[in-house]
């Protein structure tokens, strides 16, 4: 069967932002017949039930969600549906996030800066058995599994004190984003950003943005 004749890859979307899911679905439906979105979910429980109901070939999986995140979806689905392939699609490009979801069983990891056409190719490739990563993310996985000096840290007691959302805020803060830009990027209020920054400062026992940036850089969060 040629590529033009092959059946579309059935895709299930998992992301806690309905607006983002709608955008991805519209883009995928409008630019290609290589993939077919068969369902979507905004939480771990909805994802587990929806994947079982629709039997997709590929699940596009957000890493951070309020009720457990992508790794929890993988933990609950893979034993029952081992043939379903998971491709992480996340705003995060942090080493610990990439490593955690790959260890949980995802076949690839791409960031939300990916273009629609590139995302389609990534979905088709993982459905065909390839591993797919955004540029530079593959190095995190190679480092972690090679277990060599300079490899990305898998466990960090200090980092483990932070919630996934606090890590997202810290990562953007360390990249020089203003509070308003962070709020827009993460779909939260400026006040919530301020609350997360205060919590990160308290947990890390640091005193200012400059120290936080250095702390994040040392842990390869930036």
UniProtKB/TrEMBL annotation:
Pfam families: GerE, Response_reg. Residues 155-220 form the HTH luxR-type domain. The modification 4-aspartylphosphate is found at residue 62. The keyword DNA-binding applies. This is Response regulator. The keyword DNA-binding applies. Keywords: DNA-binding, Phosphoprotein. InterPro entries: CheY-like_superfamily (IPR011006), NreC/VraR/RcsB-like_REC (IPR058245), Sig_transdc_resp-reg_C-effctor (IPR016032), Sig_transdc_resp-reg_receiver (IPR001789), Tscrpt_reg_LuxR_C (IPR000792), WalR-like (IPR039420). Residues 10-127 form the Response regulatory domain.
